[in-house]
Design a protein that fits this description.
Number of strands: 2
Number of helices: 2
Distance between the termini: 69 Å
Helix content: 40-55%
Strand order of the largest sheet: 1-2
Order of helices and strands: EEHH
Radius of gyration: 27 Å
Strand content: 5-15%
Structural class: mainly alpha
Shape: rod-shaped
Number of domains: 2
Length: 96
């Protein structure tokens, strides 16, 4: 949420982005238009945008997504439950 009435912003519309249609950057108060050149601000905005797209489009093979983690935890919990139940039945059978 933006507060105040005097916010300097840059609007970048990346032409070949799969994820972003329009990106808005809100400038810090100490970097007003008279202290920094326009092309420097646009270059920095482009760098941030390129870094964010690189992080979004990273290959999925390196880490499990949420469904994969949930499935792994489900089967691990189920395996532990089966193992504990088997041990309990074995213990009961030996006590008879």
């Amino acid at each position: 949420m933006l507060r105040g009435i005097h916010k300097n912003m840059i609007c970048v519309q990346p032409p070949q982005s799969r994820y972003f249609e329009t990106v808005w950057f809100v400038l810090r108060p100490e970097y007003r238009k008279d202290t920094v050149r326009d092309r420097d601000m646009i270059r920095e905005a482009g760098r941030i945008l390129a870094d964010s797209e690189k992080n979004i489009s990273s290959p999925r093979g390196k880490s499990l997504n949420w469904e994969g983690r949930a499935r792994l935890l489900f089967f691990a919990g189920s395996g532990c439950g089966v193992a504990l139940t088997s041990l309990l039945w074995l213990f009961i059978a030996l006590l008879r």
